[in-house]
Amino acid sequence: MNIKSLEYLIAFAKEESFTKAAERMHVSQPTLSTQIKKLEDLLGVCLIERTPGKQILTPAGREVVYYANRIHADISNIYQAARRLEDPWSSTVVLGVFPTLCPYLMPRIMPVLRKLKPNFTVRFVEEKSATLIEMLHSGQIDAAILSERLTESTLRVKHIFDEDFVLAASTNSEFGHQSTPIDISQLSSQKVLLLEDGHCMRRSMVDVCQKVGAKQSEFCATSLETLRYMVVGSKDVTLLPRLAILPPIVQPTGLTIREFNSPKPYRSLYLNWRAASPVDQIMEGVGKIISGVCANLHKN
């Protein structure tokens, strides 16, 4: 079986067009069509339903594409394994990060990784934590930064840093006219804007509300950016993670940030990866680099 034929079929599955698939693979359309037809003849099944102006995968085609993708991933792993024999850091890692951390953490760690490990490549996937856990178990990603320590025996986990929360309030609110730290107990008389279900940070926010007796707002935001702007025009307050307020992040006009006195509310971040993964031997090092970058965040 020709591996290139499988790659052509995968390209067709992504593009749903012989012409676009050929462009993607940098070959002529007849070449791609002929190779896929040879694959069909070899397997003895029709993989693509061909009608004038439209081509779609058959049920058999979809199943073959599924296995073809697995073969393609294994081939990629073979090449990476060969490179790692010379340099374990000559690897590509797919790292999952949840939305309330990814856009604030990645710009900080990437320059450091590029400088310290120039042959190391990281591709990021931004999804909510539940999806990242599924992707980690299925092998779609190599590792995930989560606000929880997964306990499965097939995984390795490293605590990388703790991130404290700050209070975000309107400059027109009772918290907007001072800059001194506040006690978390002062939230007991406030209504707190929360993120929608599915965000791991929502759990942390709810825990704080329950601890001090704060009310939870009926409104639920889809992102931290939405929370910022909702607070500006509201009497309600919210919590933001430390990385989301550090430069170069610019706060909207009308938003004030207040620090908490100790003990500060915070979340713990963990790097989780599969122990059997080909990149297992370098993930401890990746975790150490991230920990170093994020040490003493409150001093930035």
From TrEMBL:
HTH lysR-type domain residues: 1-58
Alphabetized GO MF terms: DNA binding; DNA-binding transcription factor activity
Similarity remark: Belongs to the LysR transcriptional regulatory family.
InterPro entries per the UniProt record, alphabetical: LysR_HTH_N, LysR_subst-bd, WH-like_DNA-bd_sf, WH_DNA-bd_sf
Name assigned to this protein: Probable hydrogen peroxide-inducible genes activator
Secretion signal span: none
Domain of life: Bacteria
CDD domains registered for this protein in UniProt: PBP2_OxyR
Keywords for this protein: Activator, DNA-binding, Transcription, Transcription regulation
Annotated organism of origin: Gardnerella vaginalis
This protein's GO CC annotations: protein-DNA complex
